[in-house]
């Protein structure tokens, strides 16, 4: 796929910063609270940069808004299960965008991917069992394992100064620990921006199959991948290799619908699926949000052009960030962004701890990155910058950041 094949028939505007104040945006409200807690730090600041949590500050795709407005006036807001149109939209999306054939029976639901990870951990491991994660990685991967009384087994990614790869020798050794029952894979990987190749997934699958480790593949960022890179779902592996995998997907990152709370969990194995669904029911999940269902159908059937243009826009933000940093703040190193809208920045050269850096950026610059240390081992020297903002906002942020070097 290349940007040239993208749908440009309707032109969408990503240059406008949507003001989310007063709307309960978690990242903005947190930034405001924290900034106030630092008192007057003496920096002439003209606004905060809440670039932490992975949601976007663009206007929603009009196709989704229109569908929701229609649903708001027509629907009865009762308990809802997915209708045929829902299954058709999801199945068609994965076939069109990712070349995967999903059978209708394979699809089950969850209010969010983090909930799905918790259902999977609870259903398929016991207290004290080990769960392998590949840090630096999205914090709930390790936090959920710990809070559910399981043990985190770390297969830290290897970093060559620009890019990351999986440490397969270490994975082999960690998976051979009889306590290791599950691997939670992040593909594309938040926060390092890698899109794992099919050959890499084959090696992961080979190791996990030989050691009887169940793979949970979190593919929530699957749609945010920049050509020439291409998302390879774990489901592209042949059935004997993919084994009993649980694949977690959602329209929530792609179309900025995190607040609607819906995710589609794909589980080809019938036994695993049944146990997963029972666990989700035991945890009290039993109905789809009726508006999430409407929004998902609209997103997958009608808003593909919006997503195509979004990808182009975010990639341009990545290029300008990289260029700006390389030419004006060479103390910072950027990592190559293959997927996600999250730029991983290396501040090692500053020679201060993650917590000191966090305080400095927040209190002196009003910049609220997602601090690298929260992603676990290997994250200490980094900050994660959310690129899903209008270009002018990213430029202002970079200028503010430069002022401290
Ligand atoms: C890898 C990954 N998984 C899951 C989530 C959150 O998913 P949900 O909001 O559906 O629980 C995120 C959000 O940033 C994420 O990056």
Structure overview:
The structure is a single chain. The chain has 405 residues and is of the alpha/beta class. The chain folds into two domains: 155 residues, Aspartate Aminotransferase, domain 1, CATH 3.90.1150.10; 225 residues, Type I PLP-dependent aspartate aminotransferase-like (Major domain) (Aspartate Aminotransferase, domain 2, 3-Layer(aba) Sandwich), CATH 3.40.640.10. The protein has 13 helices and 14 strands. The strands form three sheets. Strands 2-10-9-8-7-3-4 form a seven-stranded mixed sheet, with helices on both faces. It has a five-stranded mixed sheet with strand order 1-13-14-12-11, with helices on both faces. The two termini are 39 Å apart. Pyridoxal-5'-phosphate binds next to helix 4.
In short:
By secondary structure, the protein is of the alpha/beta class. The chain has helices spanning 26-37, 62-74, 84-98, 113-124, 139-147, 168-175, 198-210, 239-242, 270-282, 290-302, 304-328, 354-365, 391-402, and strands at residues 49-51, 107-110, 130-133, 151-154, 158-159, 164-165, 180-186, 214-218, 246-249, 263-266, 333-334, 342-346, 367-371, 382-386. It folds into 2 domains: 3-58 and 304-402, Aspartate Aminotransferase, domain 1, CATH 3.90.1150.10; 77-301, Type I PLP-dependent aspartate aminotransferase-like (Major domain) (Aspartate Aminotransferase, domain 2, 3-Layer(aba) Sandwich).
């Amino acid at each position: 796929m290349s940007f040239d094949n993208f749908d440009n028939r309707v032109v969408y505007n990503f240059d406008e910063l949507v003001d989310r104040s007063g709307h309960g945006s978690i990242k903005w409200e947190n930034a405001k609270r924290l900034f106030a807690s630092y008192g007057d730090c003496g920096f002439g600041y003209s606004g905060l940069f809440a670039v932490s949590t992975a949601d976007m500050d663009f206007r929603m795709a009009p196709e989704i808004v229109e569908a929701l407005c229609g649903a708001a006036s027509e629907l009865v807001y009762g308990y809802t299960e997915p209708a045929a149109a829902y299954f058709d939209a999801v199945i068609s999306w994965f076939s069109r965008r990712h070349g995967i054939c999903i059978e209708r029976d394979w699809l089950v639901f969850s209010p969010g991917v983090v909930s799905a990870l918790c259902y999977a951990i609870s259903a398929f491991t016991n207290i004290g069992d080990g769960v392998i994660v590949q840090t630096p990685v999205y914090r709930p991967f390790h936090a959920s394992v710990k809070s559910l009384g399981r043990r985190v087994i770390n297969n830290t990614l290897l970093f060559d100064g620009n890019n990351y790869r999986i440490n397969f020798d270490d994975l082999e050794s960690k998976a051979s620990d009889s306590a290791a029952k599950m691997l939670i894979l992040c593909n594309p990987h938040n926060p390092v921006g890698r899109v794992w190749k099919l050959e890499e997934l084959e090696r992961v699958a080979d190791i996990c199959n030989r050691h009887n480790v169940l793979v949970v593949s979190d593919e929530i960022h699957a749609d945010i991948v920049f050509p020439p890179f291409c998302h390879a779902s774990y489901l592209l592996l042949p059935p004997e290799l993919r084994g009993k995998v649980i694949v977690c997907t959602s329209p929530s990152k792609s179309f900025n619908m995190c607040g609607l709370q819906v995710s589609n969990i794909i589980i080809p194995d019938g036994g695993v699926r049944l146990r997963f669904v029972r666990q989700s029911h035991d945890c009290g999940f039993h109905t789809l949000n009726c508006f999430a269902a409407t929004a998902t159908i609209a997103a997958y059937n009608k808003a593909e052009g919006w997503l195509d243009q979004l990808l182009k826009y975010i990639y341009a933000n990545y290029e300008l960030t990289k260029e700006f940093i390389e030419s004006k703040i060479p103390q910072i190193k950027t990592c190559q962004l293959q997927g996600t809208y999250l730029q991983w920045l290396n501040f090692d050269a500053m020679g201060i701890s993650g917590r000191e850096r966090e305080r400095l950026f927040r209190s002196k610059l009003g910049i609220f990155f997602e601090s690298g240390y929260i992603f676990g081992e290997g994250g200490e020297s980094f900050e994660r910058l959310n690129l899903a903002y209008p270009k002018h906002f990213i430029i202002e942020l970079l200028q503010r950041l430069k002022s401290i070097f």
